[in-house]
Amino acid sequence: MSMTAVSAAKPVAVVTGASSGIGAATARRLAAEGFAVVAAARRLDRLQALADRAPGIRPVRLDVTSDDSVAALAAGLDDVAVLVNNAGGAIGTEPVELADPADWQTMYETNVLGVLRVTKALLPALERGAGGHIVVTGSIAGHLVYEGGAGYTAAKHAATAVVETLRLELNGRPIRVTEIAPGMVRTDEFSLVRMRGDQAAADQVYAGVARPLVAEDIADCIAFAVTRPAHVNIDLLTVKPLAQAAPHKVDRH
Ligand code: 8X3
After folding, report:
1. For the whole model, what pTM was predicted?
2. Which active-site residues does the annotation give?
3. Nearest CA-CA partner of 141 in 133, 152, 130
C-alpha cells in the first residue's frame, strides 16, 4: 500500500467519514487549502483511492463506534489543528410508532457517540499546537423536526447539544468549535443508506429539485470556517439549497 507522505510543517486536519460524500470532499478541499489531511473512515480502499488522487491526504482506518479504533487514531497523531467530526448518517424514514430501536442505536452511535469518542481522544492533540478547531457536520435536522425523521433528528439534535456544550466547556482554551448544518445535499450514499439501499427511493429525495447542494458546497463552508483568523469562531453555518426553504418545503418542478 502506498502511503502518501504528509509534511510535518503543514497543519494537520483530521476528517472522519472521509470515504465518500461530504467527508471526501472536505478532505480534498482541506488538502488543497494546505492542510496535511488525515482521512479516516472504515473503508480503507476508498480512502486509498482518494489519497492516490490528492496529494497531502493520508488514509487511516477508523471506526468511530470503536474505542480501540479511535485510540489507535489518536496514538498516531501529534499536533492536530482541525478535527472535522463528519462520520454519521441517517437510517430509515419510519414514523415513531414503527421505528426500530436498532436503527436509532446505530444513528446515535455514529452521529453522537462518535463525536464524543473522537473529540475526547483528540482534545490533547488539538490543544498542543497553535490552537485547534473542532468542526461537527450537523444538519438542519439538528435544529428542527419533521415527520418520519425522529431517529435522525433526535441524533442530530443531540450532536448539536454536544457542540454547544463543548463551546461552553472549552471557553478560555484555544479551541474553536463550529457546527455546519446542511440541508439537502445530493451525495452518492446519504439517501441511499437512509432508504436502505433502494436507489429509486433515494433518487426521489432529489426529484425535480433544480440544484441540490453537493458535497463540495459543504466542504466550502468548512474550509471557510477553519481558515478564519484564530480569534474568529463561526458557531453555526446553516446551509440549504435555494430550492429548500425547510425540510418539507422544497421547490420541485
Ligand atoms: C440531511 C438534511 O433534511 O434530510 O442532514 O434532514 S435532512
Report:
1. 0.95
2. 152
3. 152
